[in-house]
Amino acid sequence: MADPVTQTSDSADPDRPAAGDESAESSPDEGKSGSKKRGALREGAILVAIALVLYYVMLTFVARPYLIPSESMEPTLHGCPGCVGDRIMVDKVTYDFSSPEPGDVVVFKGPPAWNVGYKSIRSDNPVLRFVQNALSVVGFVPPDENDLVKRVIAVGGQTVECRADTGLTVDGKRLNEPYLDPDTMMADPAIYPCLGNEFGPVTVPQGRLWVMGDNRTHSADSRAHCTSLPADAEKGLICTGDPTNGTVPVDNVIGKARFIAWPPGRWGGVDSVNPQQGG
């Protein structure tokens, strides 16, 4: 009679898989591994979504990068049409609690009078236009709007004027502008104080700003948009009429230029030098 012990087979044990059944042996581990991978993907997707939301909130309410598209603020900010200019970070919070002051470098939306002749800088190709719009969000392409950057020279209630014998003045006091560079402008303000036409006097309306570029001879700023009385225009004197078109509403200001984020060789703050002090 056969030994009953030797007659016991592996298949008799219900808790053990049949010999050679590898799938039955590995399936629990594979299930756990798959669950971990799915969990990791979900966590990753949630983190990316949170990061995108935070980034959008930052761009909308806190700060945003902007590309300098022109040379009007040289040498403070580098830029030129069709080239890679400075990328600046614009503080969008400060002016929620205060107002722009003389010397601040601000980014603002061009008023209607400043938008005449403005053409979209976007491609007609929808795919390329989508890419351009996406890159503008991170400052690699200028926004498709007439956003400009200038320095505040005078604020509401102040009177700005320039004459060859007195230079640029605000409320009759000559300004001190160390950010002007004769080599950049190809003109010396000590010899040509107005760096262009004489203008004014212009009293800036309340709630508006008189702004000018640091590259004074290459900047279409407040001087280029204000009106002139016919008799003064004939004499070459500009900006003696209604100043509204030449000034910028404070509400149009997007934010204050704080620092240059790119290129690395240009890293640094954007100084707010009040020209009304030290003159």
Write the layout of secondary structure elements.
Blueprint: H1 22-62, E1 63-67, E2 87-91, E3 105-109, H2 126-137, E4 147-155, E5 159-163, E6 167-170, E7 173-174, H3 182-185, E8 199-203, E9 208-212, H4 222-225, H5 230-234, E10 248-249, E11 253-262, E12 268-269
Antiparallel strand pairs: 1-2, 2-11, 3-4, 3-11, 4-9, 5-6, 5-8, 6-7, 9-10, 11-12
- Share of residues in helices: 10-25%
Strand content: 15-25%
Our Rg estimate from Cα atoms comes to 32 Å
What is the highest CATH level, the class? Answer: Mainly Beta
The CATH architecture would be Ribbon
Q: What best-fitting shape do the alpha-carbon axes yield?
A: elongated
Number of separate strands: 12
- When the domains are counted, the total is 1
The computed structural class is: alpha+beta
Sequence stretches where pLDDT stays below 50 over 5 or more residues: 1-12, 19-24
CATH topology: Umud Fragment, subunit A
The overall pLDDT average reads: 82
Elements, N to C (H/E): HEEEHEEEEHEEHHEEE
Distance between the terminal alpha carbons, to the nearest Å?
121 Å
Q: How large is the count of helical segments?
A: 5
The description of the largest β-sheet is: 8 strands, antiparallel
CATH superfamily: Umud Fragment, subunit A
Fold and architecture overview:
The chain has 279 residues and is α+β, with helices and mostly antiparallel strands. It has one domain (58-269): Umud Fragment, subunit A. The protein contains 5 helices and 12 strands. A hairpin with a 3-residue loop joins strand 5 (159-163) and strand 6. It is elongated and about 90 Å long. The chain starts with 21 loop residues before the first helix and ends in a 10-residue tail after the last strand. The relative contact order is 0.16. Mean pLDDT is 82; it is low at 1-12 and 19-24.
